[in-house]
Design brief:
Elements lengths: L1 H22 L23 H10 L8 E2 L1 H8 L3 E4 L3 E5 L3 H9 L4 E4 L2 E5 L5 H16 L2
Antiparallel strand pairs: 1-2, 2-3, 3-5, 4-5
Length: 140
């Protein structure tokens, strides 16, 4: 029985080795991506565009200000705008937005945009903000 077990382990190790070898890069793996092979931009909606859409929808957004320098170095965002009721953050990717959003209470994520709400914003208003962001991204 021991010989069969050893043979089975050896076979498993061989399959694993072949699988891992297939995952390796054949070109060294340390080269930068060639021009034209960069990730596509998800959307071109800026925090200013989102704020403009929020204002047009008559949702609360008073005392709007650029918060990029104060917020983005720590948050990892590309740009940020703050108001008394909502902070709008734009990230380089949806993944980065998800990482930030997962650590924030009272937030909503739509693609690469994260909205962080003041505690005075109710659930109905949060849903309305979310619809406005989705429409802004869709170009409506």
């Amino acid at each position: 029985m021991r010989g069969g077990r050893t043979c089975g382990l050896a076979m498993a190790a061989l399959v694993l080795s072949a699988t891992l070898a297939g995952c390796g890069s054949r070109d060294g793996g340390d080269k930068a991506p060639a021009a034209g092979h960069r990730p596509a931009i998800l959307n071109d909606v800026s925090t200013a565009d989102v704020l403009d859409a929020i204002t047009k929808a008559k949702l609360p957004a008073v005392n709007a200000r650029d918060a990029t320098a104060a917020t983005c170095p720590e948050a990892g965002c590309a740009e940020a705008r703050a108001t008394d009721t909502v902070m709008i953050l734009k990230f380089a990717s949806t993944g980065r937005a998800e990482l930030y959003a997962s650590a924030m209470p009272a937030m909503m994520q739509v693609e690469d945009i994260v909205l962080v709400f003041d505690k005075t914003v109710n659930d109905a208003q949060k849903a309305a903000y979310g619809r406005v962001v989705m429409n802004a991204i869709a170009g409506r």
